[in-house]
Amino acid sequence: MSKPDTLSDVSLSASYENHPVHYFQDGNIIFVLEGRVRFKLYRGIISRYSEVLANMLDIPQPVPMEGEQSVSTDTQELIEGIPAVHLTDKADGFAALLDVVIPPITEQFYEEQQKCEAMHNASLDKIGAILELSRKYIVPAAEAWAKMALNLQFPVPSTEALEMSETPEDMFESSKDAAMMIHIARAQELPQYLPLAFYFLATQSELDTVFQDQSLSPADCARIYKGRVKMNNAVVEIVAPRPENGTSRGTCCSGCMESWWKEYTPDQHWNSLINNPLEELKWRFDRWDGIGRSASCCKEKIRLGFKEDRREVYRRIKEFFDL
């Protein structure tokens, strides 16, 4: 590689870095993010996907002078003779947006199967960044892609027909993801994701750890705590009277209840029922059929009760957290 010929060349080389993916040698527009990361792209493609960016690029194209590296004219800054536009966004977020509308060298986004894989593998913070910038710069294709990715990774079951095969309580891998989803759902007007995010946070064993997340507002911390108390009280009201909890008598299979409790550690499962009812009720539903002690006339009735109670708790999550 030849050394820079002038002092201005040295300054340019030291102050900028090219993005490893979105820097095309034959590009005709440069975006500079964070004051140093250069994205060298194609005006035509950018203009096709973003009305806002198209308007930003609707400027006269100055003719670069031979050997010129970086100059500033009355109308436009040039870097290596290419018009440059400075944006105030994060470089990673802008790259995530470009990943959707500009296929990388592998052209992975052109194939439907690979497109679905990319949606499934995209991190929540990347999806959030795409949603934010796609709305800021009006990029409908990227916004649609990000919403599809959210729906693929975080499907929200119907409140009217929650199936036992659906496990919305397992939607998030960590409290950090649930807190991030609250921020994304509010910022991007996607309220359907809020109830399960709050439910996940409220069912964590250590609420103090949840509250240490700096992204949660004091109001949301209070919402989590109050919602957990409301949910606990509702579960006692809804589920506790069921015969399998040993709180009612007179069923034809009441004799098997005591042995069931002894086998499955009552203290543990009472706590689980109160603190994570969706998970516990599914656990009971899956295992009750295999116990074999209940009379057949009661077995299906008890399992149906698990299913109905789980649906009722799920239906009322918005109520618990005042959403």
Query: Helical percent range?
Result: 40-55%
The CA-CA distance between the termini, in Å, is 60 Å
> What value does the Rg take, in angstroms?
28 Å
The low-confidence parts are 1-14, 60-73, 105-110
Mean pLDDT: 79
Query: Helix-strand pattern, N to C?
Result: HEEEHHEEEHHHHHHHHHHHHH
Largest sheet: 6 strands, mixed
- Going across the biggest sheet, name each strand in turn: 1-3-2-6-5-4
- The tally of strands reads 6
**Individual helix count:** 16
**Structural class determined from secondary elements:** alpha/beta
Task: Please outline what is shown here.
This protein is an alpha/beta fold.
Could you characterize the architecture of this molecule?
The structure is a single chain. The protein is of the alpha/beta class. It is 53% helix and 9% strand. It is built from 16 helices and six strands. A six-stranded mixed beta sheet has the order 1-3-2-6-5-4, with helices on both faces. Helix 2 packs across helix 3 and helix 13 crosses helix 14 (277-288). It starts with 6 loop residues before the first helix and ends with a helix. Residues 1-14, 60-73 and 105-110 have low confidence and may be disordered.
Helices and strands in order:
Elements (H helix, E strand, L loop, with lengths): L6 H9 L1 E7 L5 E5 L3 E5 L1 H7 L1 H7 L12 E3 L4 E3 L2 E6 L3 H11 L10 H10 L2 H13 L3 H14 L21 H13 L6 H9 L4 H5 L6 H21 L18 H7 L2 H10 L1 H12 L7 H20 L1 H4 L3
Parallel strand pairs: 1-3, 2-6
Antiparallel strand pairs: 2-3, 4-5, 5-6
Helix pairs in contact: 2-3, 4-6, 5-7, 6-7, 6-8, 8-9, 9-11, 13-14, 14-15
